[in-house]
Amino acid sequence: MSLTDQQVRHIAKLARIELADGQLERTRDALGSMLGLIEQLQAIDTTGVEPMAHATDLVLRLRDDAISETDHRSAYQAVAPAVENGLYLVPKVIE
Amino acid sequence: MDTVKQLSARLAAGEVSAVELAQDYLAKIEAANPALNAFVELNEAQTLIEARAADALRAEGRAGPLTGVPIAHKDIFCQTGWHARCGSKMLENFAAPYDAGLIERARAAGLVTLGRTNMDEFAMGSTNESSHYGVVHNPWQLDAVPGGSSGGSAAAVAAGIAPAASGTDTGGSIRQPAAFCGITGIKPTYGIVSRWGMIAYASSLDQGGPMAHTAEDCALLLNAFAGFDTRDATSLERAPEDYTRALDAPLAGLRIGVPKEFFGEGMSDDVRAAVDAALATFRTLGATTVEVSLPRSGYAVPAYYVIAPAEASSNLNRFDGVRYGYRAPEYRDLNDMYAKTRAQGFGEEVKRRILIGTYVLSHGYYDAYYLQAQRVRRLIADDYRAAFRDCDLILGPTTPTVAYGIGDKADDPLSMYLGDIYTTSVNLAGLPGMSIPCGFGASGLPVGLQIVGNYFDEARMLGAAHRFQQATDWHLRTPPR
User: Which of B299, B358, B374 sits opposite A53 (nearest CB)?
Assistant: First the structure.
């Protein structure tokens, strides 16, 4: 199974990873060989089998509705690329 | 070579202090690490702070069995005072502002951090070649890979420059490097060790665990690492157990299942010979062996390469250059900043897995790939459930071959993926699995024996491994200096 260049560009856009034109062919081939591996799964009859989403069929627990967190803002923002007045800075998105 | 057990005894007897022990290991690391590249961060001041605290605890009479014992931590665990780079350029400048659950527990046990170990980028790889910080060399043969992704941890223990290390295992990342480097490592049942603060790769598969020379050491360390953590939504709320409790249980009556599918095509002759000899040893010790079948195990690698990348593509969305980590220096707008940051911050293997994961989750392919893989996952888990009706433990090879040369599979990721053929099914099922040394291959590199247990049967696995290690000396062999 192989992907078209257009499909590869679309996947890269969805994943927010810039693909230079020079990397397109290499990426397409790499993804194609991975798809070749996972295509094998189509051979298995899974009619009536419930998908297994997790390693154990656990039931998510509820916690008590109590305050458990304290303010870590300054510690967490200390590792950010750009912050100002307690806010994360990104390029302008609204003109 | 010193085991955790031996160091614990020397510390308890007052023959050595935690500070002296830490300094001794740091000197060994300084001498050996340039050739191995097992450690990516050392911080003597930080190590000695922890060592002095351990000595103070002992002076107050509050020491536990691991107080003052040195350990190396995989660079995937968030740990205050240290970087958590996760093998990636993306996190080159990242120092976590909090401790992971496993780190908290290690600290509480008094374990002293020697340093942070190298790993495949975001734990994606089986050779350590995808690390942004350079490949790790196998202490047995420096031109061989140490395995991955916990390759730095395995190499450090094998070389005797750390008595023990933490690791994580998503598709074999504790067991495979343990096998390649001739040490013992255990991936516990999913949910036993907290994933909180452990940088996520594939959340439904990731599980942390100890790596050391012996099963006994792994049992002592698992006692420290395991435990409920409210901050991990999948952490299991269970009564604490003593993983050393079955170390001396006799093997008489133990039923060992040997899956015929694990001894087929692709398994090298030297691995087969070593594993067969190990099975014979178990029989001599009183266990019986019975053939079992895991008919769908051949689909574990393809199912893994749908599920793990799918989860990774979601987990790694957080690396966008906004809250932490790398940000591209130049960009046009917000979307361009994301795309350039991720293009420049991630390595090739990580990008490949994010892209394939994005594809299998995308509109029109979700059912055919992702849901189908999850259905196959259940069939694989069902196979194990059926096999455990006829046996107590399942034994076989950890890997189809011994370690190969650095660069040998660098251009052929698929053949690297297929090296995880015996380990991935264990993660998919959520079962505990371990690897112990059981001999050497034709090239003089170690062979690993995989022991898979039923859910929560770590104590029995560790006990069987310990009995084997009482009768053999593979785990005591050390690489040439």
Answer: B374
